[in-house]
Design brief:
395 residues; mainly alpha; Potassium Channel Kv1.1, Chain A; 2 domains; three-stranded mixed β-sheet
Length: 395
């Protein structure tokens, strides 16, 4: 009667709403009964008002109606009743581990339980049903150097300006023919960040019959690291045992930096800057945590297969600028690290060198303050016999 004259449904609010099912008093119980009463009176306008008041109560912290009333709702309403949908949505979107589901399902009835299972199934995240693509990796010749020739290079053909002996000392798994492997990857995952795969899967490049995307000149184990990153967002890092007999490694390399460098190079071919940036960040974290950084062989590989001004080159140079020492450097750095890296390192060292203290009265270079460091150390007899040989003749 009040609603007929005022257009409002009266709700007795409690100062402390409870979230327990079947509490002593819950205004949502009254609203469920009013909805059922409106059904018997065939007054859908009143029923809609009851549903709106019910949603207001739930938004103010009041709990789910008594399970017995849920059974009454299912007995007194049709299958497509909006009150049924509301009750299901409340459970699917608002229930947590504190709910007593066993009591709720037992008292609410079998029909509500079936509808609830269907509602939860519809809410469950759907698996990725996008097209599955095949990628053939390995089985070909040496990996091709990406983007190292053409307009983006300062010279017609990118190579390390070194002799044949340099090539012999830098042999690694890249020069071996790797075993072919077929990867099956969701198209939506494969094309998410790679411009290479986005272009390769365009309709104009797609064959009438499905064929694997050809990456036969790449290493399967490196592409596997890329696939792991595609699905997990994390770079897998292999920890190796250090070898005291490895004289080519400047420091004991207990992180497989070579695979990380190869991963960066693969990202360059796949035109996936997101992956490349992830690899660079992983390199930085490994250097900081493992207290070691890429060795000579790894650096030479990076320089052979990247272009000038590559962020990877700059990072490797900076590792040496800040962590390198003369004890770890080879006698012939051009041979062990390559001419390009050595030149970049020299320039970076000059830039990082602190300027002389200009606040001093007069700054003298070392050849004036300590000229003895440039003297040839001979035996005493020779030094005595030729003691005046270096004197400047005076007229």
């Amino acid at each position: 009667m009040q609603w007929l004259y005022s257009g409002r449904i009266t709700v007795l609010w409690s100062s402390e709403p409870t979230n327990e099912v079947d509490s002593s008093y819950n205004p949502t119980d009254d609203l469920i009964e009013q909805y059922l009463f409106g059904g018997r009176m065939m007054d859908p306008t009143f029923q809609n008002a009851a549903i709106k008041a019910l949603m207001d109560c739930l938004s103010n912290g009041y709990s789910f109606p008594r399970a017995g009333l849920v059974r009454d709702v299912y007995k007194g309403t049709m299958a497509d009743s909006p009150i049924r949908k509301l009750l299901l949505d409340i459970v699917v979107n608002g229930a947590d581990q504190s709910w007593d589901f066993s009591a709720l399902l037992e008292r609410a009835g079998e029909e509500f339980t079936k509808d609830l299972i269907v509602a939860f199934a519809a809410k469950r995240p759907k698996p990725d049903c996008s097209e599955i693509l095949m990628v053939k990796v390995g089985g070909g010749d040496d990996p091709v150097e990406p983007n190292v020739a053409g307009e983006n290079c300062d010279k017609p053909e990118h190579n390390n300006e070194s002799n044949d002996s340099d090539t012999d000392t830098d042999s690694d798994t890249d020069s071996d023919v790797s075993e072919e492997r077929i990867f099956h990857i969701h198209k939506s995952v494969l094309c998410k960040t790679s411009a290479f795969f986005q272009n390769a899967t365009k309709p104009e490049w797609t064959a009438p019959t499905p064929r694997p995307i050809d990456l036969s000149d790449e290493l399967p184990e490196i592409f596997h690291l890329y696939v792991q990153w595609l699905y997990s967002g994390k770079i897998a890092v292999e920890i190796m045992s250090s070898s005291d007999s490895d004289t080519e490694v400047r420091k004991h390399e207990n992180v497989d930096y070579h695979s990380l460098i190869q991963s960066y190079i693969l990202g360059e071919k796949l035109m996936d800057t997101t992956f490349q940036n992830a690899v660079l960040q992983c390199l930085i974290e490994c250097v900081e945590q493992a207290d070691c950084f890429p060795g000579d062989r790894t650096i030479k590989t990076a320089y052979k297969r990247t272009i000038k001004h590559s962020p990877l080159r700059k990072l490797l140079v900076d590792f040496w600028v800040w962590h390198g020492d003369s004890e770890g450097a080879a006698d012939d750095m051009n041979l062990s690290l390559g001419t390009d890296f050595t030149n970049d390192l020299l320039k970076a060292m000059l830039e990082a060198r602190p300027s002389p203290d200009t606040s001093a009265e007069k700054v003298q270079p070392p050849w004036l303050t300590h000229p003895e460091i440039y003297s040839i150390k001979g035996n005493k007899k020779t030094a005595k016999d030729t003691s005046n040989s270096g004197d400047v003749a005076k007229e």
